[in-house]
Amino acid sequence: MTRPIKVALLVDEYFGGAKTAFGGYGFLARHIVAKHLPNDEFEVEVLLKKTGAKLRYAPKCYMVDGIPVYHLASTPWDWNNRRFLRKKNYDVYLSIELTNRSFEIMAIEPDTSKPLLLWVQDPRPKADWEEIDTVELFAEDSYYHQPTYDFVHQAHQNGRVQFVTQAHFLTPKAKELYRLPADTPIPFLPNPIEIDRDFDVEQYPKKNQVIFLGRIESVKRGWLFCEIAKAMPELEFIVLGKSGRDQEANQKIMAPYYEIENLTFAGHVEGERKQQFLRDAKVLVNTSIHEALPVSFLEALEVGTLLVSCQNPDNLTERFGHYTGVVLGDGFDKVPLFVEGIRKLIDKEAERQVLAIEARQYILDTHSIEAFQRDMRAALKGIVKR
Q: InterPro entries, from UniProt (predicted)?
């Protein structure tokens, strides 16, 4: 029998697994790729580059949900990492975007012909960072890293890298960031979500609740959600998420909002508890200065929760909710635009219900686990050389 294809999944975090942080890439890696990609034909292992002050002299394995997750050695001991990669002899690398730490792993792979499938998730050319830099209340640290983008450019020229993308509007950004030819094929391979087939979007009794789902960080501008809650005391607002980096600075900004009576801070939520919040709410508000296509949008639409946002990835906000238009800077002066969008959806109940049904159907048609398994396995098989 032919042995399974060995896939090395590159990501910076693993949604709490192996002592890592919580974030969108980590959620996708742990709860989608590692959970649903493996079968008799595919094995998946996760590779994380060592960060932080504490040195690691050799790769260390954590078993998370039955999947091997490796923290590689610190940079001074990359010879140990090279020996590890040579012994593992992965058939293909799958990267959720390509961060500078994941690039460092690819750069030390002894076999420079090993293929990489780069799943375009959130490419950020300089113009995107210029928009992010308009936030003054709490600046977001830039992780723009030209050596990573140069590596992808050269590897693509050498035939080592191929691409798929989770959203159509990201394709031109990826081509700009990686300096790809205009005719470079980047097929659409949307992020999937786990769908509750028994959920009845037409009969479920939603509440007059508005939710925020995401990390409490500068780029998310959670303070705007709190200002919206202050302006709409007749509705219940719930923040789902907590600070990761820069907790003290984020806490200082958010603390004045803790006393708002119609605003609840639920903290980090997962599993059935998160699903309950998503099902109950009528509206998900996203106030970020920058987004790709967040998984939270897909999770909301799957249960008929509509969108109000200043981001409009692949026109989904405009199609299934209310798009405020671009909101730069700290955004305080644009709070009325969000208030208007929420009122427009909640005050027109019949129209909201129609949109909710259409939103769920879109998710069923486009973002299923089954479609992901079929398309991702085919894409990986297409570039494996053995």
A: Glyco_trans_1 (IPR001296)
For 209-366, CATH gives 3.40.50.2000
> Residue 273 CA to chain centroid, in angstroms?
20
User: What residue spans define the domains of the chain?
Assistant: 5-192+368-383, 209-366
DSSP state, residue 220: G
Q: What is the pLDDT of residues 145-177, one digit of tens each?
A: 999 999 999 999 999 999 999 999 999 999 999
The CATH superfamily label for domain 5-192+368-383 reads Glycogen Phosphorylase B; (3.40.50.2000)
CB 189 within 8 A of CB 162: no
β-bridge partners, 71: 48, 60
Q: 130, 70, 54: which is closest to 105 by C-alpha?
A: 70
CA atoms within a 13 Å half-sphere pointing along the CA-CB vector of 153: 14
Same fold for the pair 5-192+368-383 and 209-366:
yes
Report helix, strand or coil for 257.
helix
